[in-house]
Amino acid sequence: MRDTDVVIIGAGAAGLMCAALAGQRGRRVLLVDHANKAGKKILMSGGGNCNFTNLYTEPANFLSQNPHFCKSALARYTQWDFIALVNKHQIPHHEKKLGQLFCDNKSIDILRMLLAECEAVGVKPMLETSVDRIEKTDAGYRLETSAGPMRCQSLVIATGGLSIPTMGATGFGYQVARQFGHNLLPTRAGLVPFTITDQLKDLCNELSGTSVDCLVSCNGKSFRENILFTHRGLSGPAILQISSYWLPGQAVEINLLPDLDVPAWLAQQRNDRPNAELRTLLAELFTKKMATLIAEQWFVSKPIKQYTHAELEQIAQRLSAWQVVPAGTEGYRTAEVTLGGVDTKEVSSKTMESLKSPGLYFIGEVLDVTGHLGGFNFQWAWASAHAAAQYV
Ligand code: FDA
């Protein structure tokens, strides 16, 4: 029987951080993970360069049924705290855009930093260790694991969400939450590309690889960034962002020319260059291929003087408020995050401790707190881990 103060299940971003910080408080920690490596998602994050935080992190960057929940933890462990840690380990990094901090080298710099912090307090992740059973005892929790039984005062669930099952994601954290009487909010894939199956599919296919700066809106939320046409539909940062707000069946509105007053521009072109064909005019705004395809497939290209005012209005409408109804998303196979999860109304925002079962803690993505794209999800992992680590 291994007897310890704290068992943390999940050696991902949140679990590693919590283990290091709890160890710094002198707590004896066991960190277990069923995968053969710790922090696999850290390694694949940010296209291999780990977008580890965001300079402009604030509660408004997070989705949750309980939007106030994340505030306290984010305020007590900020992006500046994590940057200080990164600087202490002399990890070279840069701001790519919009406050997003990336490693200059590889994501492994961040993983090595967390493992070094763990090692400094005597924590080495127990890998390829599965947890078969958890029981509440008078003094805490008893676990049956593939490495034998364990007993602890505090049990931390840091098993993340459902995205990328091939990287070790499971619904284990939700199962534990259910076992101890927690409410679960429906889960769905977030920060995920859209699939398109209607007549738009051909356009997406033909434009595959083309990226356009757009304003994308759905359910009252808008993001200004690139969209990317793909063989299967639409992706790119603006699409990933809006996917977290989209519900099946809904339309997404895409303004393909967010900096242009399109009706005024069309009127001016009609006046100045009446014989210019629509596709020639659009080629000044988009790539030639995209201009030709949309001029022909959407509008039938002809000299601009030949369009009626009503037709010009329709063209303007289509370009600045293109309505797209995705067939669905690529799902957990490629999603960066899982929306929903453990209902935060039953968890202390100060300590991350369960309000249903004392000594049980939930941190990171398993909770119903999901960040926007841009380093916010890792900042939540660090901040929630820090909050729990002060109390476990
Ligand atoms: P995380 O998923 O990191 O860790 C969970 C751990 O629990 C894993 O090690 C897993 O093996 C283990 N586990 C699961 N089930 C278990 C079980 N039954 N028993 C034992 N162990 C179990 N975010 C960001 O801010 N910037 C970025 O650049 C990116 N990039 C990015 C790219 C890709 C491709 C993905 C999929 C995701 C991102 N993210 C991101 C999101 C970010 O990776 C994610 O939000 C955090 O890793 C969540 O941290 P957690 O520790 O909660 O879960």
TrEMBL record:
The protein's name: Aminoacetone oxidase family FAD-binding enzyme
Q: Name one Pfam family in it.
A: HI0933_like
Q: Which residues form the RsdA/BaiN/AoA(So)-like insert domain?
A: 188-337
Tell me which residues make up the RsdA/BaiN/AoA(So)-like Rossmann fold-like domain. Answer: 5-390
Q: What domain of life does the UniProt record list for this protein's source?
A: Bacteria
* Keywords of this entry: FAD, Flavoprotein
Necessary cofactors = FAD
